[in-house]
Write a structure and sequence with these properties.
Proton glutamate symport protein; 10 helices; globular; mainly alpha
Length: 216
């Protein structure tokens, strides 16, 4: 059946299977954590290059900076609106369903989140935040996966490449070809999305079930 080959359907089935297996066999999922982490690392591996290539090719193909500004403005407005809606939905779901209730973080592998809590409680220094968007080292920004720095560099690179006109066309075509390769790679990685989701839900449910049983 066609529905069985649908990736969304497979991911949903994997989530349900992960919850069930993690609940009934909580010890098994923890041993397979490495496979779930491998899938996540594979996704992170291609995020920065895809962002760079997509933005550079998109800006360079437009040519007219006015069009770039209009599209960028619309994209920013769209991002803000959708993000606000997502935050509202998230807050509603958290207050109604209370996900994670009863979960003991101390029972989780590497469950110490005190360092993140202390950072979150600190006041945001907006000057440092905006200054940090500009990367001191472009290679380091890609290596660490700092998306804001990669995004900033990508926009500048795309604007510079667009300003070259016909001289930059061979480079634009090259980046376009490389981007198609990366989209093929992400397509191959997505084939393993159900497995990655299954293992992540399996591990989470395993820890949650183990925490409940230990308190009993």
């Amino acid at each position: 059946m066609r529905v069985l080959k649908n990736l969304t359907f497979q991911v949903i089935v994997a989530i349900i299977a992960g919850v069930l297996v993690g609940f009934f066999w909580p010890g098994v999922g923890q041993h397979l954590e490495v496979l779930g982490n491998t899938f996540i690392n594979a996704v992170k591996m291609v995020i920065a290059p895809i962002i760079f290539l997509t933005i550079v090719v998109g800006i360079s193909r437009m040519g007219d900076m006015k069009k770039v500004g209009k599209v960028g403005g619309k994209a920013l407005i769209y991002f803000e609106v959708v993000s606000t809606i997502a935050l509202i939905v998230g807050l509603i779901v958290v207050h109604i369903l209370q996900p994670g209730a009863g979960l003991d973080p101390s029972k989780m592998p590497k469950g110490d989140v005190s360092q993140f809590v202390s950072k979150g409680n600190g006041q945001i220094n907006w000057v440092d935040f905006f200054a940090n968007i500009v990367p001191q080292n472009v290679v380091n920004a890609f290596a660490q996966g700092d998306i804001l720095q990669v995004l900033f560099f990508s926009v500048l690179f795309g604007l510079g490449l667009s300003a070259l006109g016909q001289k930059g066309k061979p480079l634009v075509d090259f980046f376009d070809g490389v981007s198609q390769v990366f989209f093929k790679i992400i397509k191959y990685i997505m084939y393993f999305a159900p497995v990655g989701v299954l293992l992540e839900r399996w591990l989470l449910q395993s820890v949650r079930s183990g925490s409940k049983r230990s308190r009993r």
